[in-house]
Amino acid sequence: MPKRSLAVLLLAMIGLPGSAMPALAGEAGAGELPAWTVQQPRHDRYLAAHGLRAFAGGYSEDGLEVWSFPLQIASGYTLEFVRGDGRVIRGIDVLDSARVDPLGFVRDYRGEGFHVSERIETRGMLPGVRVRLRVEGDPKLRVRARFEPSLNLMWPAGIGGQEFGWDASAHGLLFKEPSRHFAALVASPEADAHSEPNNDRRGSTFGRPLFLEMDPTACGDARCATLVFAGQSETGEEVHATASALLAAPDAPLASDVVRFDDALHMRITTPDADANRALRWAQVALEQAWSCNARLGCGVVAGYGPSHGARRPQYAWYFAGDGLVATRALVQEGDFERASEELAFILRYQDPDSGMLWHELSQSAGFLHWTRDYPFMYVHVDIAFDFLPVLAAYVRASGDEAFLRRHWPQVMATWRYCLSTIDAGDGLPRVPADKMSANEQDRLTDELTLSASWLEAADAMASMARSMGDPRLAHAAEADRDRARASIRKRYRDDVHQRWISGFRHDGKAGEPFSGADLAAIGSGAATPAEAAATFDRLASSDYLTTWGLRSKPSNAPDYDPQAYSRGSVWGLGSAAAAEQMWRAGRPRQAAALWLRLVPWAAQDAPGHMHEVQSGESFEPQRESVPEQTWSSAAFLSAAIRGMLGLQIDALSHRLVFAPQPPLAWQSLSVQGVRVGDRLVDLAWRRKGTAAVLEVDNHGAPFELDWRQAGADAAHPPTRMIPSGRSRWQVPTR
Asked: Is the pLDDT of residue 77 over 80?
């Protein structure tokens, strides 16, 4: 039985605490869900409740958006408090603190003589959001919810003819449209005042602000009210039934919701740095919060969460295959093979059946549109196919799931053939078709060093998977493609005159501007000499590139440097984490650790526990276009820790684990629990002891082979050994 299913069963058997709100401490212990408290949440703090079918989020000063994917129910949701004498107090003026956990968040409001607690959450697969209100103090205080109705699909789809009315039986405002296919209901059993429909010749626009006013009823020593936002976008859904289910749901969280974030399901990394530990755990939370289900499209990883741009376009709460692959890589490394396989299957589900090309972008409303025919976003990025093959190979190797590979082999071969279709016969490197693009969307190059390096990885991955499928001829052909590409990369992209790497070529034949991503790709491909690699790493340590919060995408001395531009001088979490990982893999642990630790404060900057997409290049503040919850920033931060700092590599097919720790010099110990090696669970505890390194292994399964690569270890101590069941301990002298 998969770990996730087993955990759900156990939780269902033992039950959950029955408190009105989960007991979530700031630093949760083993088995508890983590929580994050914000003492000043009024401004520039993005808060969100992430559900499988619903979502509520936003900045408190702007009001929240409420969605039941793919339907936007409302925007601009805020609270007001009405005194007995009729005085109205804006919620934002008395908002005191917020507590965020994986299942939702609580906002606390404290005014003269009263305290209101507002819990916003989702439940299972219900297409709606629930708000629970608890009022203490003033016995006459009433709570007014204000919002702007939407009843519209996510960009670029749309619905017309919306209207609303008061539904007395549901104690709510019912939004509907003539086809009766789409509907929304905002309701509360405690509601006794509300906006009235306006049929006047002026001021009757559907999207004008509405309110629902509640008179909380007694609940113990306080007064309580419940508000629900229910959506309907599919046959079989009905807003009244959804609203009733949300209202009837127990106060305690559902076992099926809790188990998604149970740390027993995930690798657990503990270091001497409490802030790093918290950022790592929340990176894992962010990965699971990005798992979203769409009734028409299926379930997959969304690229992030942030306020809408334009009309009904929450960033980036729709599907990008490239972002999903970055997330899948982290899922594989942390051992969440179930989610990884689901995401890989989701990506293959929408492969172009004619060309084998993999897709780039799916809006949540794509199921209501001719998405591939009428919009240019689906099959536009050639790099997705090249990135997919190495991630798939890593999944098969780490999980041992060769059955997945066999089941999808025809699609894998179609992906491989698509990659081959872009290869230039002259040098064996890929070219970007004129109507397509690769990773560099800003410059639109004909070919890119990063894409060519990805081709090398893709060919190597294909060789590995071909051997698993018993096809040595294909494996040899793929290895030949890989070797030819490695030799060609240097010839095409190395500028020996100026001692630099060329990022690619424009359509007019001119060389593209150099940037750190291309330089690192040259190192990763093996095209750079050791001296050239060292020069690149030294350059990235200069003040032109390095800030106290990460690496600039362009050096400050570049002619086109702009610290506020999206990609010409800003600091990316993804790029900084990837650079740190590569530094660790190149044997530069001090530089890697110093860069990686610069990313830890990102988790506390805006959306608690989440990392922004991109920062300004001149100060530690989000770049103006940045998304507050960017999935790949969290994923890359986690990957850098696992693959770089810990040096963990899992080969379930060979029952082998590589552990090559390179922690910061100030750290004297670290531990990793729940490492999955095939059907084994392994715990590792490492520490420095004088001039020696000590490793304790607790193997909860059959014997396996451990390759402990300890930096500075005496050569007389072989790194590889068989690890028996139970506990083992080794010590090696170090220089």
From this structure: yes
Contacts of range 377-382, beta carbons closer than 8 Å, 24 or more positions apart: 378/350, 379/352, 379/355, 380/436, 380/437, 381/321, 381/322, 381/436, 381/437, 381/438, 381/439, 382/357, 382/422, 382/430, 382/432, 382/433, 382/436, 382/437, 382/438, 382/451
Residue 470 phi, psi (nearest 5): 70, 35
**Tokens standing for residue 560:** 């086109």
43: left (phi over 0), alpha (psi -120 to 50) or beta: beta
CA separation for the pair 188, 191 (Å, rounded): 5
Q: Please, which residues have CB within 8 angstroms of residue 413's CB and are 6 or more apart in sequence?
A: 356
C-alpha–C-alpha distance, residues 422 and 432, integer Å: 7
Count of alpha carbons within 13 angstroms of residue 496, beta-carbon side: 4
- Let me know: does 626 contact 614? Beta carbons within 8 Å: yes
CB 683 within 8 A of CB 674: yes
pTM exceeds cut of 0.70 = yes
Integer Cα distance of 281 and 37 in angstroms: 15
Q: Which of 550, 603, 640, 542 is nearest to 38 (CA)?
A: 603
Task: Specify the DSSP class assigned to residue 534.
Answer: H
pLDDT of 23 over the 70 cut: no
Backbone angles phi and psi of 673, in degrees to 5: -110, 150
d(CA 252, CA 245): 14
Mean pLDDT calculated for residue range 19-44:
64
Q: Strands 71-82, 88-90: parallel, antiparallel or unpaired by DSSP?
A: antiparallel
| pLDDT tens readout for residues 437-488 | 888 777 778 999 999 999 999 999 999 999 999 999 999 999 999 999 999 9
- Per-residue confidence (pLDDT) for residue 13, from 0 to 100: 34
The SS3 of residue 325 is helix
- Give the angle subtended at the CA of 497 by the CAs of 492 and 502, to the nearest 5°: 40
On whether the CB atoms of residues 65 and 308 are closer than 8 A, the answer is yes
Query: Phi, psi at residue 36, to the nearest 5°?
Result: -135, 120
Residue 74 and residue 229 in contact, taking contact as beta carbons nearer than 8 Å? yes
CA 222 to chain centre: 38
Question: Do the strands 704-708 and 656-659 form a parallel or antiparallel pair, or are they unpaired?
Answer: parallel
Please name the helix (run of DSSP H) or strand (run of DSSP E) that holds residue 52, with its range, or none: none
Cα–Cα dist 348/346, whole Å: 5
Long-range contacts of 522-525 (CB under 8 A, 24+ apart): 522/449, 522/453, 522/489, 522/490, 522/493, 522/494, 523/582, 523/586, 524/453, 524/582, 525/452, 525/453, 525/456, 525/485, 525/486, 525/489
- Provide the pLDDT for residue 15: 38
